[in-house]
Design brief:
5-stranded antiparallel β-sheet; Beta-lactamase; binds glutamine; 10 strands; alpha+beta; 13 helices
Length: 309
């Protein structure tokens, strides 16, 4: 097996030099301002190494990666009853597709496509004011990462709200099926804010450690979720974390991963490592082009695929 620091440095140098970098998301105007030349990577291993390269300390919009943390919180609050409102199957459709929702009576396929994540957010909102729900999500992520400086980029949240017609359509549609407990604008207010959380690769890799560590927070040894729940969240990430590109990601990388349209990906090597990469240019499925490639190279060099060497 190769030596981690050398592999990471080599991948970062190669990614920095790539010409083909994909397209930065433009449907959220604030995200279209991000320079596609960025590339960052951070790896935290369960045996205590931490390796970074490139723009590993630059904050970016985590977008849908936040859905891993909201799913964890909602399962903690609601338990398995959550699965009555959202499925656990890959969607095979784009993250903001509406067609499947009609056929499946307002029950989204999984918690990582937009309608599924909106239902999860609605579950977190129960019994709270939107402001409190946003605060609890942010504090949970700060705790996981051991870093209180993680913040919500208000300009991104505003930009999403102003242009989120598709998400409003999805929320209204689910409301009509009785699968949304709160007014769509309240649930979406929370949703847009958690998508607008800004983190660096170093912070994101830290926040993902519990999923690589059987549900335990490595810094404090405290249990965040049971080992069974950690396994199941990893399974969801593998099957659904890259939308209609999930099969390709599993085929090429072989790790549970969650992408966001900000160009970040969180990938988990169970028992071994938590990895965050960031390259803002996306492929046709809305997943980071160079982020996926970097993870493919890293998993191969370190023999980290969950499917064996
Ligand atoms: N906030 C984004 C949206 O709702 C998240 C999508 C994503 O990262 N894939 O469209």
């Amino acid at each position: 097996m190769a030596e981690l620091a050398g592999v990471v440095a080599e991948i970062a140098a190669e990614m920095a030099a790539r010409v083909e970098r994909g397209q930065v998301a433009s449907y959220i105007p604030e995200l279209s301002k991000v320079d596609p030349r960025h590339f960052g990577i951070a790896v935290v291993t369960m045996d205590g190494q931490s390796v970074e390269a490139g723009d590993a300390d630059a904050a970016f919009s985590i977008q849908s990666i936040s859905k891993v943390f909201t799913l964890t919180l909602a399962l903690g609050a609601r338990g398995d009853a959550l699965w009555r409102r959202v499925g656990r199957e890959p969607s095979g459709n784009p993250f903001n597709s509406i067609v499947q929702l009609e056929r499946e009576h307002g029950i989204p396929r999984n918690p990582f496509i937009n309608p599924g994540a909106i239902v999860v957010t609605d579950a977190i909102l129960a019994g709270h004011a939107p402001r409190e729900a946003i605060g609890s999500i942010l504090r949970f992520i700060q705790f996981l990462a051991d870093d209180d400086s993680i913040y919500i980029d208000q300009a991104v949240a505003k930009s999403e709200r102003e242009t989120g017609f598709r998400n409003f359509a999805l929320a209204n549609y689910m409301k009509s099926f009785g699968n949304l407990d709160h007014p769509p604008e309240l649930t979406l207010g929370v949703y847009f804010h958690h998508c607008a959380i800004a983190m660096s690769c170093r912070q994101l890799a830290s926040a993902g450690r519990f999923l690589a560590n059987g549900g335990r927070h490595p810094a404090t040894g405290r249990s965040v979720v049971s080992s069974e729940r950690a396994r199941r969240i990893n399974a969801m990430m593998l099957m659904c974390g890259h939308y209609d590109g999930s099969g390709d990601f599993a085929f090429r990388v072989g790790l549970p991963g969650k992408s966001g349209v900000g160009g970040g990906i969180l990938a988990i090597v169970p028992g071994k490592a938590s990895i965050a990469v960031w390259a803002p240019g996306l492929n046709a499925n809305g997943n980071s082009l160079l982020g996926s490639l970097a993870l493919e190279k890293l998993a191969r060099a370190m023999e980290w695929s969950i499917f064996g060497r």
